[in-house]
Write a structure and sequence with these properties.
Residues 9-211 form the CobQ/CobB/MinD/ParA nucleotide binding domain. InterPro entries: CobQ/CobB/MinD/ParA_Nub-bd_dom, DNA_Partitioning_ATPase, P-loop_NTPase. The protein is an alpha/beta fold. The chain has a single domain (6-248), classed as 3-Layer(aba) Sandwich (Rossmann fold). Helix content is 42%, strand content 13%. The chain has helices spanning 19-32, 49-63, 65-78, 93-103, 120-127, 140-157, 182-193, 230-233, 238-248, and strands at residues 6-10, 38-42, 85-87, 108-112, 131-136, 167-172, 197-198. The chain has a seven-stranded parallel beta sheet, sandwiched between helices. Helix 1 (19-32) packs across helix 9 (238-248).
Length: 255
């Protein structure tokens, strides 16, 4: 290993907040479009959603002529492999990440973690992150839950001093309409008073975020083997979010 990778998680305790989808979309965009080398540690037991998505992607890429051709053209052009998806657990997450980063150079290792912070192994994994991005939505229950989660990370984890966390941020996800309403400004004021930061980019609510590879060959959006197609990427703000994250973690221009 000649470079120190950044350990990053989209993490929250609220189910359905979009952390897994954001992990896949940003990882795929950075790896296949921006040229960074990434890996994903899937320790969200028992569903292991990203590892299962990779299995589905591979099955279609091997059996479907359309995706088989897409994969061949992409990996020939990029001259790089698909990023690894490691099925792990919170207990083994950091050891698995350290193991693969000793074998190859990565710029970013993404972690898909369970939502609970009551588990010592989850706390251990979180303390080893460099950056944490917590998806939030303009729903009072979601927001309150995520704020409690961030308070735990900041008060219990960061203030102990036994952590590598350099930054924690919140990300507006599943935003209704093309622009944020006044309600978001009220929420952001509360968030700022608590001392938390919100990234500038917001992710709109769209059915495309559920779209994976299908036998009907509709536009690719969420995949571990391919980046979002340009037609699907437009208006999703995934590209803008990825670029903002690169700036925040000071990796912009190093891909």
């Amino acid at each position: 290993m000649s470079k120190q990778p950044i350990y990053l998680a989209f993490s929250t305790q609220k189910g359905g907040a979009g952390k897994t989808a954001l992990t896949v979309l940003v990882a795929s965009y950075l790896h296949y479009v921006k040229g960074y080398d990434v890996a994903v540690i899937d320790c969200d037991y028992p569903q292991h959603s990203i590892a299962e998505m990779r299995d589905r992607d591979l099955k279609l890429a091997l059996e479907d002529d359309h995706y088989k051709r897409m994969a061949y053209e992409q990996f020939t052009r990029l001259d790089k492999k698909a990023y690894p998806v490691i099925e792990s657990s919170t207990e083994k997450a950091i050891d698995d990440a350290d193991r693969i980063t000793e074998q190859a150079d990565f710029d970013i290792v993404f972690f898909d973690l369970p939502g609970t912070v009551n588990n010592p192994s989850v706390i251990k994994a979180l303390t080893n992150m460099d950056y944490i991005f917590a998806p939030i939505s303009a729903d009072r229950l979601v927001l309150e839950s995520t704020l409690r989660y961030m308070v735990v990370i900041n008060d219990v984890i960061k203030k102990t001093g036994v952590t590598t966390i350099k930054g924690t941020y919140m990300v507006w996800n599943m935003v209704d309409g093309r622009e944020k309403s006044e309600l978001y400004g009220v929420y952001e004021q509360v968030i700022a008073e608590l001392g938390f930061e919100v990234v500038k980019t917001f992710i709109p609510n769209s059915l495309r975020f559920r779209r994976e590879l299908t036998e009907t060959h509709k536009g690719v959006f969420r995949s571990t083997l391919f980046p979002p197609e340009r037609s699907q990427l437009k208006g999703s703000n995934i590209d803008a979010l990825a670029d903002e994250i690169l700036e925040l973690i000071k990796l912009n221009g190093n891909g």
